[in-house]
Write a structure and sequence with these properties.
The protein is an alpha+beta fold. The protein has helices spanning 11-22, 32-39, 97-111, 123-126, 178-181, 183-190, 238-246, and strands at residues 2-5, 45-55, 58-72, 77-88, 116-120, 132-133, 139-141, 153-157, 168-170, 207-208, 215-216, 222-224, 230-235. The protein has 2 domains: 2-179, Aminopeptidase (3-Layer(aba) Sandwich); 203-246, no CATH class. The strands form 4 sheets. Strands 1, 2, 3, 4, 7 and 9 form a 6-stranded mixed sheet that branches. A 3-stranded antiparallel sheet has the order 5-8-6, with no helix packed on it. Strands 10-11 form a two-stranded antiparallel sheet. Bound molecules: coenzyme A. Coenzyme A binds next to helix 1, strand 4, helix 3 and helix 4.
Length: 247
């Protein structure tokens, strides 16, 4: 197994890996492969911290980093960094590869002066690489009350003293929201991959009907499109009514 920098010839393979890795994990389908696809043109993207993990000529892991910032309590922007998506191929998950890749990348990041990282993730994985709740460093998450301990918002000072005793609020860079801000481009991009079934499965982020707010926890809670596919935006009660109103 080797870890090396990503090259342009890897791009499609890595985006496919990201799609396979994230598919139905946090939501029906996923968006992370499009985030990565668009990020490589973003000035915040850090090519020196864009790693693939390769085994027997096949790419089984990937992670990318981005510049970010934290807004301090006095309103000034403080330079920081974030990372993700990080992906391990579904065949290779829970065999220690993800942690190896992340620890390698963190070492390289520290070496080029990355002093502080914060991101959203599962502490059960990231604690093995030194991450803890960002609230312990007085870094708050945008849209959440400053006093709340956001369980999925994590941080780590890579260079001791870089953050110090400051206090501030983090909002992920705009590059992470491209699928929401450009849904048509995302749809066209997704259509360039082989069809994969989307499903609501336990463990995903909470999904709600966009009309009545009912929690959507399984495919049968959702409406059905004319072609029989699941409509993950509306529940089985609101969707037929919306279809009638739209006629
Ligand atoms: C998350 C991910 C990168 C972890 O890589 P991995 O190779 O599967 O994880 P590792 O085997 O290196 O895990 C090291 C330890 O972290 C913990 N861990 C890993 N993934 C975990 C998860 N999803 N939930 C809880 N704990 C987890 C475990 O304690 C594991 O040790 P164990 O196998 O002895 O239980 C990988 O599973 C993945 O690509 N997942 C889908 C995409 C994703 O969620 N990316 C992260 C977005 S924040």
């Amino acid at each position: 197994m080797i870890i090396r920098l990503e090259q342009p010839k890897d791009w499609r393979e890595v985006e496919n890996l990201t799609r396979e890795s994230f598919w139905n994990v946090y939501r029906p389908g996923c968006q992370e492969h499009f985030v990565l696809n668009q990020f490589r043109n973003n000035p915040s993207f850090i090519p020196k911290l864009d790693f693939v993990m390769e085994e027997d000529g096949r790419i089984i892991g990937h992670v990318m980093f981005s510049k970010a910032e934290i807004t301090l309590t006095d309103g000034t922007a403080f330079p920081s960094w974030t990372f993700g998506p990080i992906s391990i191929h579904p065949d290779c998950k829970r065999k220690g590869y993800g942690l190896k890749l992340l620890l390698h990348a963190l070492g390289k990041a520290r070496a080029i002066g990355v002093g502080l990282l914060q991101m959203e993730g599962n502490i059960d994985f990231y604690k093995h690489a030194g991450f803890d709740l960002a609230s312990k460093l007085k870094i708050h998450y945008h849209g959440e009350p400053a006093e709340s301990e956001v369980p999925y918002f994590l941080a780590q000072e890579l260079i001791p003293g870089y953050w110090g005793d400051r206090e501030g609020t983090y909002c992920p860079p705009a590059g992470y929201f491209v699928a929401e801000t450009n849904p048509e481009a995302f749809k066209a991009y997704e259509a360039s991959f082989p069809l994969k079934e989307k499903h609501l499965v336990p463990g995903q982020l909470p999904q709600f009907c966009q009309s009545c707010g009912m929690p959507l926890t399984k495919d049968d809670d959702c409406g059905r499109n004319a072609d029989g596919s699941v409509n993950f935006d509306y529940c089985q009660y609101c969707f037929p009514m919306l279809k009638r109103w739209r006629k």
